[in-house]
Structure to design on (263 residues):
């Protein structure tokens, strides 16, 4: 099943949509889920490969479906606040807690044949939060 | 370890580095820390130099090290550097680090190339 994402680009991260920033994007998505709680209960958000003008880069994507709030503004404002307020030690603790090889994650994410539908089931995503994969997703 | 360097234990960052799951991102954090240390401890670091080095201990990882460039440097900088690193990591925001990354990107820093260069030392 094809998945279409809207890209969320916090202004503060706009110049950093680069491979080395992948852990920051993952940390940010986790914190957005924690910070916004019920507001994001029905929002499927992930770190995906985006493309523009022939350049591919990692970005936060929201699965495109009708939502009953101005999610883009809420997410961008909250992202900007988190980036200004949270200490760098949080991202270090986050990386330590996940025990994930971020080089390998980044390589997989930025492959030429990147497919969001397949990426969703990547173990890196499912390890973190309680968001359940949809029933129609092939988990084989 | 590079000859003449004293190893710095970089707080919470250290175990991640030692786990050998290093990434370009961690290398970037180390370089940002060096910039912050040079700014905050300017007077203490006269005659000393902090660098990201390849540490070889049960494998290899990119660690922070310092060495003295002249004999007049303040001896045993380790404890001061380690306390300051802990404080920087707890006090400085993600935004501070992102500003550093943006500045590095503007001058064309390629973190993957930096990582490769450091981890190729001695090969």
């Amino acid at each position: 099943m094809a998945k279409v994402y809207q890209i969320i680009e916090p202004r503060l991260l706009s110049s950093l949509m680069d491979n080395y920033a992948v852990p920051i994007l993952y940390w940010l998505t986790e914190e957005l889920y924690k910070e916004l709680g019920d507001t994001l209960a029905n929002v499927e958000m992930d770190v995906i490969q985006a493309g523009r003008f022939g350049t591919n880069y990692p970005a936060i994507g929201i699965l495109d479906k009708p939502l009953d709030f101005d999610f883009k503004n809420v997410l961008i404002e909250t992202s900007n606040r988190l980036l200004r307020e949270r200490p760098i030690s949080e991202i270090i603790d986050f990386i330590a807690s996940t025990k994930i090889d971020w080089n390998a994650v980044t390589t997989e994410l930025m492959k030429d044949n990147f497919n969001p539908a397949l990426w969703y089931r990547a173990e890196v995503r499912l390890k973190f939060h309680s968001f359940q994969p949809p029933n129609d997703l092939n988990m084989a | 370890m590079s000859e003449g360097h004293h190893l710095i234990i970089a707080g919470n960052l250290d175990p991640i580095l030692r786990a050998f799951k290093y990434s370009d991102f961690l290398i970037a954090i180390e370089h940002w820390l060096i910039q912050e240390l040079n700014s905050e401890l300017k007077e203490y670091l006269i005659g000393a130099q902090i660098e990201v080095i390849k540490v070889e201990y049960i494998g290899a990882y990119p660690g922070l090290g310092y060495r003295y460039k002249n004999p007049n440097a303040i001896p045993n900088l380790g404890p001061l550097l380690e306390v300051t690193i802990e404080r920087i990591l707890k006090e400085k925001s993600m935004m501070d680090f992102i500003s550093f990354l943006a500045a590095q990107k503007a001058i064309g820093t390629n973190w993957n190339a930096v990582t490769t260069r450091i981890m190729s030392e001695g090969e």
